[in-house]
Write a structure and sequence with these properties.
single chain, 297 residues, alpha/beta, 434 Repressor (Amino-terminal Domain), Endonuclease, Chain A, 6-stranded mixed sheet, 12 helices, elongated
């Protein structure tokens, strides 16, 4: 049965968090009826994939469609229906990233919403500096390189808009209170020059500055191999929710909930145990910066 809450007292701070809460409730209701997504969809002339996307919080649901699903699931409680209706209405409100949906895509839009509502963020990056910590020249160099390597048909206007999205995401670093942000980057990220020496130097200086405000660590080349030797991932924790893991690789994005997120929680623990401390990280960054300065013309 859906929880009997009032929409105004919900945890989380944006429409995406509302869609996720609603998706959790609808998934639980469907499971209680022992129905598959396909079976539930057929009852209201919808596809199983549509039901799954609603439950994953990828899209919003109209109130009329919600009522039809609740009838299928046998939800008669007026307070429960009112609570879920509130989630549906708030989940369909526009966000700042809605204006960029044409270039960021559905999965990335979900991620931005999760990140925006998170109170704790853990990120591991093995290839590049995490988006929240990138300088604008570094961003541009990455987007331009990817457009060439992946034969990505985008021009300067699209790249400018992608940079706008990334810069806007960085607003969370100026919030008070600041979300608990822990970032682990592979040492190769520090050593790999992106956009030329000057761009890389500015990026390293920025990372040194970030280390005074967040928990920034480096997984050095000397670290023992372990279960965390995997591709980049992010763990997001929002009020009232279990951790959600997010992975993106070559344009494909995956979101893992509940038990599927557990391996990433274990990986995060391993990374924290085996990475350099923030103080050691700053020393390595300064060393890399000094080496780049010696190479500069």
């Amino acid at each position: 049965m859906a929880r009997e809450k009032q929409g105004g007292n919900l945890p989380g701070g944006n429409p995406q968090s509302r869609r996720l809460l609603l998706g959790d409730e609808l998934r639980s209701l469907r499971a209680s009826r022992k129905m598959t997504a396909d079976q539930a969809g057929r009852e209201i002339d919808r596809s199983g994939s549509w039901v799954s996307r609603i439950e994953a919080g990828k899209i919003g649901i109209r109130v009329r469609e919600l009522h039809e699903l609740l009838d299928v699931y046998g939800v008669a409680s007026l307070s429960s229906r009112k609570y879920l209706e509130g989630l549906a209405v708030e989940g369909r409100q526009r966000t700042w990233w809605s204006a960029y949906r044409d270039i960021v895509g559905e999965s990335y839009s979900v991620y931005i919403g999760l990140e925006d509502a998170a109170e704790r963020i853990f990120e591991f990056q093995e290839r590049v500096v995490p988006g929240l910590l990138q300088t604008i020249p570094y961003m541009r160099a990455l987007f331009e390189r990817f457009s060439v390597v992946a034969d990505w048909a985008v021009g300067e206007p699209e790249i400018d808009r992608l940079i706008q999205v990334r810069v806007r995401r960085q607003d969370i670093l100026n919030r008070r209170p600041l979300p608990k942000l822990v970032v682990v980057i592979d040492e190769s990220v520090v050593r790999r020059v992106v956009g030329g020496i000057e761009v890389q130097r500015d990026q390293l200086r920025h990372l040194v500055d970030c280390a005074s405000r967040i928990d920034l660590r480096i997984l050095s080349f000397r670290a023992m191999s372990g279960p965390a030797m995997t591709s980049s991932f992010t763990l997001l924790r929002s009020p009232g929710r279990s951790p959600i893991a997010f992975r993106e690789d070559m344009g494909r994005s995956d979101v893992y909930h509940d038990a599927l997120a557990a391996p990433y929680v274990a990986m995060a623990d391993w990374l924290l145990t085996n990475s350099l401390s923030t103080e050691e990280t700053v020393l390595l960054l300064l060393q890399a910066l000094n080496e780049l300065s010696e190479e500069a013309p």
